[in-house]
Amino acid sequence: MAKKRKTLPADFRDLLETGDLAALQAVFDKCELDARGGYSKTTALGFADCPDDLARWLVGQGLDVDTSSLRDQRTPLHERASGWRSIAVLIELGADVNVRDSQGSTPMHAAAMVPHNLEALISGGAEVDPVARRSTPLRSALISCENAQIAMVAESAAVLIAAGAAIPDDASELVTQIGTRLEFARSKFNPDFIEETDAGLRRLYELFDVEPVPRRLTHDGTSRIEVDATDTKGQYAELWALLVPVSGPATIVQGEVLRLAGKLSREIDGNGSINWNNDFRSMTDALGVHLASGKPVDNLDELAPMLGRIRTGNAPQADLACVRESAVAWVLGNPDPTPLPTPSYAH
């Protein structure tokens, strides 16, 4: 008898989409029941499109419903809890609702932004507040929430709180950050979804008793630039909200100086310079030119070696902080808007 394969066929996803149970069962004439496939190297049970009847058949044939993936030791319940398809069949078949992967995460963490799967897991006996990497499912949802996910996260938060989830200590801060990101991007947000997104944001404010973030006021491009904040950090935040566009270069040099200082900092300190290329070097050069223009900043000599290190994509946080502070000083020293020439960089 020929030895069975340990990997699923390359076209297994296509077979799943057909929903042909007989054809899917026939795969296991040549493959082991626990044959793996996909990015995470999971069993057939871990594929989102796995039909319920196939899942029942596989378990009936002897496949352990909790057989974990070769990558990150995630069970099929982990794999599917983050998707929109129902996970009810896995729970019906006895999947462990509190199992942890190699990172310590449970299916509840995977389902943190999928309300109906959270409800299914809770009904199946899942712990509401398991902690993985210092976060419960509720905190994970708030941390990971992007603008397009606000409505879902609000619903998930309501489900978790109703089930007795503890409110994270930093919930107010996290919800404020969610609101701030939406207000910053509101002008470019898809108008087809803004109503439900706003409703979700209001719900988050109510659930966590957070003061709503005010609507963003942007500069008109011609008026003298003024700020209310008196400290550099506050001035940077105020100027950023006022002058920096949602995407692409600013229309005035003052906004571009802030944007470049922030973008270079994020790429080096936040991304480890993984995207560093000639564009970023051109941005660094442009920032140096801007800081020396108009009324130059007082610390140009000090900035020169810092910008040199930044240009390599390898600069300490102290350099990045000094450049951001210098950007603020330059804008405040040059408050009359200066149109930005077409930049030499694309980002």
Automatic annotation (TrEMBL):
<protein>
    <recommendedName>
        <fullName>Ankyrin repeat domain-containing protein</fullName>
    </recommendedName>
</protein>
<dbReference type="InterPro" id="IPR050745">
    <property type="entry name" value="Multifunctional_regulatory"/>
</dbReference>
<keyword id="KW-0677">Repeat</keyword>
<dbReference type="InterPro" id="IPR036770">
    <property type="entry name" value="Ankyrin_rpt-contain_sf"/>
</dbReference>
<keyword id="KW-0040">ANK repeat</keyword>
